[in-house]
């Protein structure tokens, strides 16, 4: 005899409760029935430290007293947060694009107006309309020209370029195409930028770590790469891609050409697709160091290594542009088969198009004022602003390196490029034990104390991954003005001395042999 509808509903109830929660809980979408890959994903630069910082900021507003009046957010590379001035020409052109009627009324220079008019004439419907899914054609043409000039004439094509909302979206797109099943692995440098571990976790792939050698300036060796891929394959991992961040984030190193050649040859021999994160390519500070793009190195190698498959990424958020909020960026596909390129284009079309403001910010980055189209005055002003910004960035990197190396139980490699320092932190056994009792990593314990005593927000090295037995933190080199940076570092130095005195013990945890030069 069949069950009544009432009985059927009663039998379904427990299953529904397990899936969606009880009526008393009100919400049927809960943490327990959410995509668990999302729940497991972590993004350290906006993680627990930033959550605690937000609580402190709220408490200050409510009248609670701290040893500081405001926070100094050194957890993220956000240049304009610290007061970096945007490039005048770019912002003036963009302001007209936001309000085309101002073309006739603004007091901007003829150069600015002419550039804005050229954009207005070429963008049907203005920047409030959708563009081609892969980005405006003329912008991609200028990106290709920029790449070709940067790489000494090596051919670049707009048809191999996809614009994106910052480099992160391009990276997300490529990883989503590479990771097809839980056994698929992506090699990532350790330390790494947490975007990669977060996305790999979210896409249900496997991290395949390879360690950078801190004792040798965060370099990478063929032996380390071979050991990493061998171990992964022995564990049943299908290694499909390899991430390289150059200049390094969080480590600040700049790879030389020989190191890049080693990586390229390894990738080809192991049938691994390279993902070159090159968003800091303008941020080179150390004398004698030079940025070498992976595309240029791949193209310069003899066969078969010149056929290595490569995705490269760039962004308007870093360099001297620092336009993080406009979310401009692009990816270039090199030696990628046509059928795969078509699928990447299809993937981009699902999201309609990257934002137009970001596209034009990218255009202004790769096609700045030049003598062919703008006046000598416009070119000189642009070069002067660029030079001043890069000079200041270099000076601040030097200040951070010097000051960190003057602090007790901290040692820092020279910041050769990018926007961060990633110093080693030597902690007492007492710190390790107290952190364990609180259920946090020792460097997280240190960073939380720094936040509560100084208001300076730094990120523990455990959030970037690090060699077992070592501790680090990442701090940005972006604080402006330079006098403020020096003052904040002195406050941090005083905290650091207090911390090591407060948590002193006979034993200081040293890194394992070969893990550090210090």
What would your notes on this structure say?
The protein has 518 residues and is an alpha/beta fold. The chain is 43% helix and 11% strand. The strands form 4 sheets. It has a 7-stranded mixed β-sheet with strand order 2-8-7-6-5-3-4, with helices on both faces. It has a 3-stranded antiparallel β-sheet with strand order 10-14-13. A two-stranded parallel sheet has the order 1-12. α10 links the parallel β5 and β6. α4 crosses α5, α15 packs across α16 and α16 crosses α17. The termini are far apart. The N terminus and C terminus are likely disordered.
What's the short story on this structure?
This protein has helices at 5-20, 36-40, 48-61, 88-98, 110-122, 137-150, 166-178, 194-202, 222-234, 257-269, 294-300, 338-350, 356-366, 376-404, 429-438, 442-454, 482-502, and strands at 72-73, 161-164, 184-190, 206-211, 238-245, 273-277, 310-315, 329-334, 410-411, 420-421, 424-425, 456-457, 459-460, 473-476. It has 518 residues and is α/β, with parallel strands linked by helices.
